[in-house]
Design brief:
This protein is an alpha/beta fold and about 250 residues long. The protein is built from eight helices and nine strands. The protein has one domain: Spore Coat Polysaccharide Biosynthesis Protein SpsA, Chain A, CATH 3.90.550. Helix 2 links the parallel strand 2 and strand 3.
C-alpha cells in the first residue's frame, strides 16, 4: 500500500528540516511525500530546495489557513493511506509508517492512530505532555476523548467518500473530521499503543487561552453540524481530558 504523508508549513525554517528527515528515514519504502507551503519568507523554501529531489510534490503559495492547505495536500495525494506530519513534528522512529500499514492490513481497518508526546520547543527530549490514547469504542467522544490527529492515518477512499477537512473550523477541523469519520460514519479503526509522534509545543490550538476556548466552542458546533446529540458539558470534559495528559507525563 502506498502511503501519502503531507507536511503543511509556513515560515518553519527553524524546525522543518528535522520533520523532513524524520519522514525520509522511514524504513517503509512506498511513501509519497507532499509539502504544502503557505508562501514562506523566512528560509523555509531554501530548506525545501535542499531535499527537493526526494519530495514528490511541493507547492508554495498563499492559502486559506492550515486546513485549507491540508485539503490541497489530500487532493494532490495518490496513496492508499493519507497521514499528516507538520513542520513542528517528528516520528519517534524509522518504523512508524511500516507499523501503521501493518496494523491497517492486519486488522482490515479504515484508519489507525497511536499515542503522542508534546515536547519542549527547543528540546525534543523534554516531555511536557503525554497523550495516551486507547481503542475507539462508543461513548468515548462524549467523555472528551479523541485521537491525536498527528498520529491519525486514514484510507484515501474513506476521505473521498466522507469528505475532507471543513476549513470553517479554523482551529478544530481535525477534531470535526475524526468525529465525523469515527462517531457519525462508524469507520473501522485500530490503535497502536505506542508513541508514534513527537509534537513541539506551540501548535495551532494551544497558543493562548482565547484560542483554547474557541477550539472547544468549535468542537461543540461540530457535534451539532453533524446531527449528533451532545451535552453542553463536552466543553468541560475535553479540557479535563487534556489535564490528564500532564498527569500522565508526571
Amino acid at each position: 500500500m502506498k502511503v501519502s504523508i503531507i507536511t503543511v508549513c509556513l515560515n518553519s525554517a527553524e524546525t522543518i528540516e528535522e520533520t523532513i528527515r524524520s519522514i525520509l528515514s522511514q524504513d517503509y519504502k512506498d511513501i509519497e511525500y507532499i509539502v504544502v507551503d503557505g508562501g514562506s519568507t523566512d528560509g523555509t523554501l531554501d530548506v525545501l530546495a535542499t531535499y527537493r529531489s526526494r519530495i514528490h510534490r511541493c507547492i508554495s503559495e498563499p492559502d486559506g489557513g492550515i486546513y485549507h492547505a491540508m485539503n490541497k495536500g489530500i487532493k494532490l495525494s495518490t496513496g492508499d493511506i493519507v497521514g499528516f506530519l507538520n513542520s513542528n513534528d517528528t516520528y519517534t522512529g524509522q518504523c512508524v509508517i511500516r507499523r501503521i500499514v501493518q496494523a491497517i492490513q492486519t486488522n482490515n481497518t479504515d484508519c489507525c492512530y497511536g499515542d503522542l508526546e508534546y515536547v519542549a520547543r527547543n528540546n525534543s527530549e523534554r516531555i511536557v505532555r503525554m497523550w495516551k490514547s486507547q481503542p475507539y469504542r462508543h461513548g468515548l467522544f462524549e467523555k472528551g476523548w479523541h485521537p491525536p490527529h498527528p498520529t491519525f492515518f486514514a484510507k484515501k477512499d474513506i476521505l473521498n467518500k466522507h469528505g475532507y477537512f471543513n476549513p470553517s473550523y479554523n482551529i478544530s477541523a481535525d477534531y470535526e473530521l475524526m468525529l465525523r469519520l469515527l462517531k457519525k460514519h462508524g469507520i473501522k479503526s485500530c490503535y497502536i499503543p505506542s508513541v508514534l509522534v513527537k509534537m513541539r509545543m506551540g501548535g495551532n490550538s494551544s497558543k493562548n487561552l482565547w484560542r483554547i476556548l474557541k477550539a472547544n466552542v468549535q468542537c461543540y458546533q461540530a457535534w451539532r453540524q453533524n446531527g449528533l446529540n451532545i451535552s453542553p458539558f463536552i466543553a468541560l470534559r475535553k479540557p479535563m481530558s487534556k489535564l490528564r495528559q500532564f498527569i500522565r507525563k508526571a
